[in-house]
Task: inverse folding
């Protein structure tokens, strides 16, 4: 209901996520430092190294588009039968992500 009534707000939100992901991938060390600032001094290094590891493991999405296999894998982590109970085709609409990809310039 909200998406149908407020498509402009939804698009702006997805655009912001798209810009964020592009910045993060263009500047992973800076992104790690920003995230690390949220932690105390003792945990800051761990947070920074963990963030860098997420990049090395390719665990940070390249863009806001949701892929079928990623959707199903995330659901399986929750509960094995969730991929069946929450089918991609019924719950995911990449329309806004596709529009964001067109509008947001690559760094």
Result:
């Amino acid at each position: 209901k909200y998406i149908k009534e407020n498509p402009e707000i939804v698009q702006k939100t997805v655009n912001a996520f798209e810009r964020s992901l592009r910045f993060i991938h263009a500047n992973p060390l800076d992104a790690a430092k920003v995230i690390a600032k949220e932690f105390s001094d003792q945990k800051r290094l761990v947070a920074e190294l963990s963030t860098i590891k997420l990049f090395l493991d390719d665990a940070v999405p390249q863009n806001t588009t949701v892929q079928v296999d990623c959707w199903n894998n995330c659901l399986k982590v929750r509960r094995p039968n969730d991929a069946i109970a929450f089918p991609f085709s019924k719950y995911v609409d990449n329309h806004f992500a596709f529009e964001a990809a067109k509008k947001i310039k690559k760094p």
About this structure: The CA atoms of residues 50 and 56 lie 10 Å apart. Helices lie at 2-5, 7-26, 28-36, 41-56, 68-78, 82-85, 88-91, 95-103. Residues 7-26 form the longest helix (20 residues).
